[in-house]
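seq as requested:
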Amino acid sequence: MDLIPVEIGPLNPQVQELAVGLVLFAVCYLCIVPLLRRARRTIEAREQATDGVAKHAEQVRALAEEKRNEARALLAKARHDAARTRQQAEAHGAALIAEARADGMRERDALLARATTRIEADRATAEAELRTHIPELAAELASRVLGEPVSPGTRTPAADTR
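C-alpha cells:
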C-alpha cells in the first residue's frame, strides 16, 4: 500500500515501511537520548571544571597580586623606617662625635695648661739651681776660652766693665 496513490517512483514510500522506520527511529532515539544526556553532563562537568579552575586561578592570581601589593607596601614602610633610623643614628653619631671632640678639646686645653704650669715650674727650678752654679760654670767656660785656669772668685777686666 502506497502513501500517495500516484506513481512517483521510489519517492512514494509504502505505509508498512514507514511504520517500521518510525518504530526503528523511536527505538534508536530512546537508546541514544540517554547517551546524549550523559555526554552533555560530561561536557558540562568538563566546562565547569575548566571554568572552575580558571575562576580559581583568577582568584588565586588576584590574591597573589593583593599579597604582592601588601608586601611592597610593607617593604616600602620598612625602607622608610630604616632610612629614618639611619638618619637618627647619623645625627646621634654626629652629636656624640661633637661631644667627644669638645671633651677632647677641653682635655687638651687642661693638659696644655698643666704642662705649661709644670714647664714654668721646672724652668724656675732649673733657673734657681743654675743661678747657684753660674760662677763655677762661668769660670769653667772662661778657662776653656782663654786656655788658662780661671778661678770662680777671680775678676777679669772684662767682667769689671759691665
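The CA atoms of residues 2 and 9 lie 11 Å apart.
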